[in-house]
Design goal:
Elements lengths: L3 H6 L1 H12 L3 H12 L5 H28 L5 H26 L18 E6 L6 H13 L3 E6 L4 H10 L4 E5 L6 H13 L4 E4 L8 H5 L3 E2 L3 H9 L13 H4 L7 H7 L1 H15 L8 H24 L2 H17 L7 H11 L4 H14 L16
The chain binds cobalamin.
């Protein structure tokens, strides 16, 4: 979207914004954002500046918040405070650019069959999804591009989503999700919207590398807000004959019932895994109430990701999660080998489920340090 020179010119504001978030200085953060926008004037220039500030200043700074949390450099509370300031910064961009948006854009105005006036889209998180900030960024960029956006925010129940999209005659529903365990619900939202004749464009980290899970669920996918705008400009194809459907039609592997069984028996699986972990690591029996709760939460997460990997039939989903968990634990001085008893327990409990065994074994292998290479002849001292 920008050349190297322009991108470079935001490096300093990015650093300043990071400092402001770090010091919980909302006033300064907003001032930095306003400064980076420059003086708003001609509509096209204002739109471009707004988009750049949203995607190249606020978004990467917010991603840095995630990196700092994962590395245990900031607490959950600090992360919440920083996110609240980022939200305020997005609102500042919306306020500052609103006057320019009041003037219709000239040229090929996007979004409608007739080619005039803005189209209307709905931007929303899937049910259970709290990460509203990415959806908000996408919504604001589309607004800057001339779309009328109904932004519904976090965790919207599917029935309400479809009802709103129908009532407002949205031309498309843009669905955001960051947490992969919400994919079965996202699938339901996608097929429900399509069943109502509304095209769906999905985005966010949950949908996997290059949006592989969105495609599996027959939704369009865009990697970011700019790609989404380009796709919308081209008009999304209306949902075809496959529109209203049960998940099994898109995911025939569900017929083996492995996903259903793991999901249904999750409480028992978590309970037994906890018992096995306590046996394997006697030290865990002396955990405080807080530590025990965290352990249960971690096991619950592991079983949830396993179920999701079964749902989309992709061992990589679980392997990525286990690697991520190992990194999070390592940053908190917990050895990743702590995960082995949980994985082993689940392998034992799910021994009759071949897909689950494959997924758990792949994750186990990823965590296993490589063996030292076999000893060869001693190196030639002349080499
Ligand atoms: C802020 C934050 C939160 C806040 C969210 C507040 C809010 N109002 O949004 C709170 C505290 C609620 C939260 C909760 C949790 N979080 Co959180 N969170 C984050 C954090 C730090 C920033 C998210 C963000 O705004 N990113 C910035 C945006 C710009 O990036 P983005 O998401 O990639 O979005 C871009 C594209 O993906 C795309 N896009 C996104 N959506 C869409 C939609 C469409 C249609 C399109 C076209 C494009 C698109 O465009 C965006 C803009 O370019 C991330 C770290 C990170 N790196 O993102 C973790 C992160 C997403 N969270 C994480 C986790 C684990 C959780 C919790 C499970 C923690 C817990 N144990 O409770 C819960 C889950 C709650 C839930 N059910 O949703 C993990 C997920 C890891 C994983 N393997 O699943 C992350 C990655 C943290 C980390 N570094 O490990 N979180």
């Amino acid at each position: 979207m920008t050349d190297g020179k322009e991108a470079h010119s935001l490096a300093e504001p990015r650093e300043q914004l990071w400092q402001a978030l770090w010091e919980y200085d909302e006033t300064r953060a907003v001032a930095i954002v306003r400064d980076a926008l420059g003086t708003t004037g001609a509509a096209e220039r204002t739109r471009a500046a707004g988009e750049r500030v949203l995607l190249e200043l606020i978004a990467p700074t917010q991603e840095r918040v995630g990196v700092a949390w994962a590395a245990n450099d900031i607490t959950v509370a600090q992360e919440h405070a920083a996110t609240a300031i980022s939200e305020r910064c997005i609102a500042a961009v919306a306020d500052a650019t609103a006057p320019a948006l009041a003037h219709p854009r000239t040229g090929t105005f996007v979004g409608t069959e007739e080619g005039g006036g803005a189209g209307r889209v709905l931007v929303s998180c899937v049910d259970g999804e709290w990460h509203s900030l990415p959806a908000r960024l996408v919504g604001e960029v589309l607004r800057l591009r001339g779309w009328r956006v109904d932004y519904l925010g976090a965790q919207v129940p599917t029935g309400h989503l479809v009802e709103h999209a129908r009532r407002t005659r949205a031309q498309a529903v843009l669905l955001s999700s960051s947490i992969p365990t919400l994919l079965p619900g996202a699938h339901n939202a996608i097929s429900s919207c399509q069943g109502a004749g509304i095209p769906v464009l999905a985005g966010g980290a949950a949908f996997g590398p290059q949006g592989r899970y969105a495609r599996l669920m027959r939704a369009e996918w865009a990697k970011d807000a700019c790609d989404a705008a380009t796709l919308l400009d081209r008009h999304l194809a209306p949902p075809g004959a496959h529109a209203a459907r049960l998940p099994d039609l898109d995911l025939p592997h569900l017929a083996d019932q492995e996903y259903t069984m793991v999901r249904r028996t999750k409480p028992q699986l978590v309970k037994q895994t906890l018992a096995d972990v306590e046996e394997g690591f006697p030290g865990t029996r002396h955990y405080s109430e807080y530590q025990r709760e965290r352990t249960v939460e971690d096991i619950d997460f592991i079983v949830g990701y396993l179920a999701t990997a079964l749902y989309v039939d992709d061992p990589d989903l679980f392997t990525r999660f286990i690697t991520w968990t190992a990194d999070i634990l390592a940053a908190r001085d917990v050895p990743p080998r702590c995960l082995f008893p949980a994985l082993d327990s689940l392998r034992k409990q799910l021994k009759d489920f071949p897909r689950a065994i494959g997924i758990l074994t792949a994750a186990h292998d990823v965590l296993t340090p490589p063996l030292a290479p076999p000893l060869g002849p001693p190196p030639d001292p002349c080499d």
